[in-house]
Write a structure and sequence with these properties.
162 residues; mainly alpha
Length: 162
Amino acid sequence: MNFELALASGIITLALVFYTAGVFAERRAGALKPRHLVLFYLGLACDTFGTSVMTNLAAASGANPVHAVTGAFALVLMLVHAGWATVTLARGSESARAQFHRLSIAVWLFWLVPYACGVLMGIPALAFGAPEALACSIALSVGIGGVLCLRANFGTRALAHR
């Protein structure tokens, strides 16, 4: 693995750590708070830097554009998400702050697709091409989303019946 690829992979993994921490801390807290916004922006900054390095590497190697397109779209979603979080914190009602986690989870799940796709394509033993990696990544994201949705719906109802 060359230095640029290792650097980009590490920085994008930091984006995963920051973004995941922000999304799930917000969810656990029950409302959007300034510390969550800091984590969103740290994730966005890491993802932007890592993606720019990966874009240069992909252009030089003639890589499949599917991963690049989903990654770029995820980056735009992260930017919109962080911007909306800023507006919600500045002007949002308590109700808007309490409901913001739904958008956060949706954006995080979409962001997970290009991240997992890149990981799967980068594991030589799997020998996944872009279509296989993308399909597995989508399945992973949908599966995690389904578990989170079931947990939120049935966990809340189970607690209400106690």
